[in-house]
Amino acid sequence: MIELQKDDGLWIVTINRPEKANSLTEAMLTELAEIAEAAVDAQALILTGAGKVFSAGADLEEARAGLALSPVWERLSSALASLPCLKVAALNGTLAGGANGMALACDLRIAVPSAKVFYPVMKLGFLPQPSDPKRMAALIGPARTKLILMGGQKITAQEAYDYGLVDRIVEPDDLLQTARDLVADTMAADPKIARGIMDMCS
Fold first, then answer.
1. Single pTM value for the model
2. CATH number, span 2-201
């Protein structure tokens, strides 16, 4: 359900459970975290999903059984955020719930026009993972972060772009190629230069 393609230093990770809206089980999250932890030598990483939804967040059955409170979410987002390579979340559709963490941990986010972003933790009776509100607020400010987390608002791709949560809106057929184009200069650069710029931007 997690696919990894390696292409000359470019790692493309795909969540592939479209029949369940790419909802995430603990095993899937653990596999994603292990991939992120192993990607220390990658020059760039693209994270995307199969089908028309990036991820609906936690698998509901596992969430009720305790997955919503698992440290694996923070393990994954922390591993992604700490990678010294350029990371692009290519949002092929809606980004929901805890899946926001992995996208927020990426350096760039691009989305198809039909994508929506929401994070209904308060409605469901859970706290978000500790780093998620901080990363979201750093991108869009505390008020808009509260609009999503406390106001329960589902925002469109255009609103996400206007807020600064998404960096580009891309047609579905162009999504993966656009992600590849965004990492092309990094892939071609001296890794020391690319990592030096990454450190300067952090």
1. 0.95
2. 3.90.226.10
